[in-house]
Amino acid sequence: MPKMEKVYLHNPSTEDTIILVSISATTSHFHASFFQNRIIPPGGNTSFDVVFLARVVGNVENTLFINTSLHGVFTYQVFGVGIPNPYRLRPFIGARVPVNSSFSPLINIHNPHSEPLQVVEMYSSGGDLHLELPTGQPEGPRKLWEIPPYETKAVMRASFSSREADNHTAFIRIKTNASDNTEFLILPVEVEVTTAPGIYSSTEMLDFGTLRTQDLPKVLNLHLLNSGAKDVPITSIKPTPPNEAVTVDFKPITLKASETKYTKVASIIFDASKAKSALQFSGKIVVKAKEKNYSKLEIPYQAEVLEGYLGYDHAATLFHIRDSPTDPVERPIYLTNTFSFPIIIHNVSLPEDAKTMFKIKNFSEPVSVPPHKALYIFSLHFVATTSSIHIDSNILLVTNASKFHLPVRAYTGFLDNDG
To answer: Which of 25, 250, 291, 367 could pair covalently with 237 via S-S, beta carbons 3.0-4.6 A apart?
Structure first.
């Protein structure tokens, strides 16, 4: 979540006019806008905006250099502290695209609150950057921009069309109904547009998002484009450094010359259960092409892995349907939190097919399960129906660490005869 502050410049001279040329910084954490006025008359003022975009958690400081035409260079100190982003938004920085192609990343927003999060406004700073619906439709219902509690959702696609070779910077402003969000969220978009022939990726970062160690492997597709004048074989795609948590599904492919559309060349799979250390949460995917004049393409990847699971007694959610109707059974469900942070259970629900025999009882939201502790969460009430149809379903738990599914089964013990 970039933070923007306005810096005011004052010319104390009674005679000299100061002409401002540029602002430069030596770090990617701070970004300065253009001057409101490049000429400051004697006794006059101007201003510019500084956006602090923390790339790391912790303290960041730097010097801005304000260059003038006749009065040398003035320095200005900037300082900020980076903290983890609750909405899991990331800036789109480092994209490199050929002229007359586009860069169109999805904007995913996580809702860290126990209430639905509504995106109220979203707009771009104009120019070559446009906003489109993820569906591609011209318009959509308000519900499209509502994010359920503790869920992540793609709310918009940022589409950047490159017409001329240059370094382009734009901003996307987002406003939500969150009570603590009185200001806009500002997403910088920085794209380098180049005429150099080569292999290009449709994304500047393979972001696997937040995963838990028991989640299924997450798959992201890699799309490439060849802007050169001749066909180029892609010979290998590998993670560097080597990573047991990352596998690449790739068969050698030749990218046609002067294409304008990106081609899927590989699937990159991240298995959180194999990520044993933080060193495995990020790295680069290196693409090698059989073309001496092309530099190898490197696409960074990242994942946030939450180490742990919710433990429970598997027998507690298993019920036997007998021949004759039985008395109701009610079992307490305890959950063990093996994560290093509290798990807040916001909601517990049953799918329709399970409601014929099961009910959730004694759940009062929210329930916070401390790290490495077990806690009673709710009771599962079971009444067998005379139809004796077996049920194989899941109880849905909505938590601050995404959704969990607890299997719930009612079985007859008989073999099915489907003829």
So the answer is: 250
